Amino acid sequence: MGQYSIKELEKLSGIKAHTIRIWEKRHGIVQPQRTSTNIRLYSDEDLKRIINVSLLNHNGLKISRIARMSNEEINQKIAELSRQKTDAELFIDQLVVSMVDLDEWKFNEVITQLEERIGFIRTITEVVYPFLEKIGVMWQTGTITPAHEHFISNLIRQKFITAIASLPIAPRSAPSALLFLPEGELHEFGLLFFHYITRKKGYYTFYLGQSVPLADVLTIYDTHQPKVVISNFISQPAPSQLQSYLNRLAGHMLQAQIYAAGHNLRNAAVLIPKNVKVIYRAVEFEQMLPTIKEFV
Predict the structure, then answer these.
(1) Cβ burial 65-96 (10 Å sphere, 16+ → b, else e)
(2) Diameter of the chain by CA atoms?
(3) What is the extent of the structural domain holding 235?
(4) Looking at residues 184-205, what average pLDDT do you find?
(5) What is the pLDDT of residue 179?
(6) What is the model's pTM?
(7) pLDDT higher than 70, residue 20
(8) Residue 168: is its pLDDT beyond 90?
(9) Domain CATH number, residue 98
(10) What is the tally of structural domains in the chain?
(11) Of 16, 122, 157, 281, which one's alpha carbon is 20 to 30 angstroms from that of 132?
């Protein structure tokens, strides 16, 4: 059971601490416990209620009216809004609630609604990525536990894998793409998303996944000669080693178009080789990647 300070509640919910205090004092929206030194401590239930109250208030309901509603009535109203609207913040907040509750049913309900309305790619770029950024901040500041982060990360990973598996495998004669993460790199979400887009566009894919030694990547390239190579540099290689890594990769793969993304690459002072294109935003990749007809 979570115990949050009012500042942590502010970060998690996006509602200013001053506003939370007013809602608490004037309307009894939440009733936190207090320590012996009179510091407010909020529970998981308080967090969920604040998030849901904020959503209803943002969508036109007055706080005085919401305060008279039961939790069941609030949940019913949130469900109505979810069916009517596609506002990203509404769904991001509901994913936060599913994470706090460790509620796989709720997570699947939210993602399924979104996929049916706006498709898988927009669901990922407009809702899941901003949600991941939010929980990244929450995890770093200690406002969620590693268990919460692992729970939700595994659910998202399952969604990627299921979506990729639902796509047909291209014939071996199709242009091919090699996808990998450098040795020591374990942040796989971005690469899984690129894998989905690449396979959806009709490429035959060699997906090597996490932490692949460069020598192995070069061997696979020599054997299969893929037209496209895709990687993501989030924490590896170290900034001091990134230039030499890129040079070796690009120099060996002269006949391939290399696409590279990630925090390390965007923020390091490196010279980008001619056959490397930087993916600055994941949403751009679908347009950057050539259609397979361009290789015929």
Answers:
(1) ebeebeeeebeebbeebbeeeebbebbbbbbb
(2) 73
(3) 170-295
(4) 91
(5) 96
(6) 0.72
(7) yes
(8) yes
(9) 1.10.1240.10
(10) 2
(11) 16
Q: Cα 109 from chain centroid?
A: 17
8 A C-beta contact, residue 288 and residue 279: yes
- Tell me the C-alpha distance between 229 and 226, whole Å: 7
What count of other Cβ atoms lies within 10 Å of the Cβ of residue 129? Answer: 19
Residue 2: Cβ within 10 Å count = 19
Name the token pair of 114.
């979104």
**Gap between the Cα atoms of 36 and 113, Å rounded:** 45
Integer angstrom CA distances of residue 274 from 38, 67, 112, 249, 259: 61, 60, 41, 12, 11
Between 34 and 227, name the one with better pLDDT. Answer: 227
Q: Which of 168, 217, 171, 172 is nearest to 191 (CA)?
A: 217
What whole-number distance in Å separates Cα of residue 201 and Cα of residue 205? 11
Tokens matching residue 220:
């696979």
User: How do strand 228-232 and strand 176-182 relate by DSSP bridges?
Assistant: parallel
> 142 and 191: one domain?
no
Segment (H or E) for 99: helix 88-100
Distances from the Cα of 30 to the Cα of 34, 67, 100, 210, angstroms? 12, 9, 17, 44
